[in-house]
Amino acid sequence: MESMLFKRLRPSLNELLEKGTDYSFHGRFIDTLSYNHFTTEDFAKLKQIDELIAPHKQEMVHLFYEGLKQVQPEATKTITEARIEAYLNAFFTMERNRAYVDESLRFFHLLRKEKVNVGKLIVAFNQFNFFVLTTLLAKVALAPKRCLTLMEALQRAINIEQQLLVEVYTETLMEQIASGTEELMEKNAEIMFIKDLLQALDQQNSDVQMVTAATEEMTTAVSEVAHAATVIAEKTTTSVERAEKGQQMMTEAFGEIIETSEQFTNMVDRFEHLQQHLSAIEKVMQLVNGIADQTNLLALNASIEAARAGEYGKGFSVVAEEIRKLADHTVQSLGEVQRNVGELRTISSEVSSSIYSTSSTIRQAVNQAQEAMPLLQEIVSAMGDIQDSTNTNAAVAQQQAAAVDEIANRMSSIASLTEYVRELGEKTGKTVHALSKAIDRFRLNMVNENHIKLSAKALLHLAKTDHLLWKWRIYNMIVGYETVRPEDVASHHQCRLGKWYFDEQTKKQLQGTPAYEKLDAPHERVHIAAKKAAEAYAKGDIKGAEAQLIELEQASLEVMRLLDELMEKVQKERTFETHLA
Length: 581
Fold this sequence. Notes:
23% of the residues are buried. By secondary structure, this protein is mainly alpha-helical. It has 16 helices and no strands. Residues 545-572 form a coiled coil. This is Methyl-accepting chemotaxis protein. Keywords: Coiled coil, Transducer.
């Protein structure tokens, strides 16, 4: 049966569900105090507990230290018993205000930094709580009401510590997730060369197609050249053979010409002898003609003497007449012979002159032939060299034809490979875009579904990721992977960064900070450029959209730089604003 005493002391359900606090400051920590129904009276009771357990404080510190050592042995190198004692003193004696939150959260962040498991830390806190409770029971068990009120205050304080501890771990986790997704998206956004790659591949494919067509034409031309070179080589071989044969024939003809020249020289000599014989004949004829004249004269004289003799001289006159006739006939015959000899001399002279002229011509031809023979030899030799070169050129032309044909085949393969690479680039771009979408969904799910209050650091990481995503979305819109309507681009006051930037608490904390003051202008330019890019793309103005993407990227880089400066400032001046803001 339940003791009537404890039944009266046990709080009712309504009392257990009661919320609220009498602390009066602003910020998130007041909500924590209110949710746990922690009041100034509870704090006063904590101080009473501290006095009651003072003799056992070192034992309590050692218990906490050993519990921590069991959870993470390496952590105790940094988190000493002195550090634990300082935290526990603050737990029992520090007023619940900003200084207290700073002290508690620094200790919890130190635990988080040393990678102490949060679940096991909860166990360590429960062991610490149990130790204090049992110590209280030992001290004030005879005053049940006081004991229960002290235990209630202790439990509320422990609940607050555990809530702060879990929030530190979850918020740090969110900061890491936000930072990690930002880094992933930053690396993802660096793959904005896919558009340029696809455009370059399209241009390369076009160039390759043109080169392939030109190569095919060149292959045809080179094949024709190779065929022509082969034909020329064959004809050159024939020409060389004919030239050599012609050289042989000319050599033989040259020999015959020389022989003919010698024969003509002999003929000239013989005609000279003929002229000499004709001259001798003419001399004989002159002698005979003289004899005939003398005979004719004697016959005339005989006739005259016969006439003088009268009858006695008739016979002698007849003889004299016959002799005269014979002499006349001889003279006539000699005249005829002389005419014939004259004609023979004229003809022989003409023939001799002609033969001499021909002989001179032949001798000149022989001299020219003698001069031409070395030239002919050189021509034949040159023709042989031409034949060798032509044969070589024909072989080279055939090799070039084969090489160009191979180039044409390779260019065709390159064209196919380029198209394949373009397909891979297209798939890569779509895969990277899908990956970015998956990363963004994970990021938003972690933020929206866990209902975790974000620290300024986490929020700034998320804001950076938001702006990286806008640049990424506009880029993928231009590539054709995503649809962005102008109305999808909100005002720079309505985005996550804008809401944080224009929040009164943010202004109070950061107003006057150079990076904060400069942030609004480039942030607005990011939104304007994104909206104009979407409008240009909707009108089919791709170049205009690309120009706005460049403007967006420049403004985004400025936003990123300023956010990094703010993040550095927040990190240096970290006062755990999420619990006080």
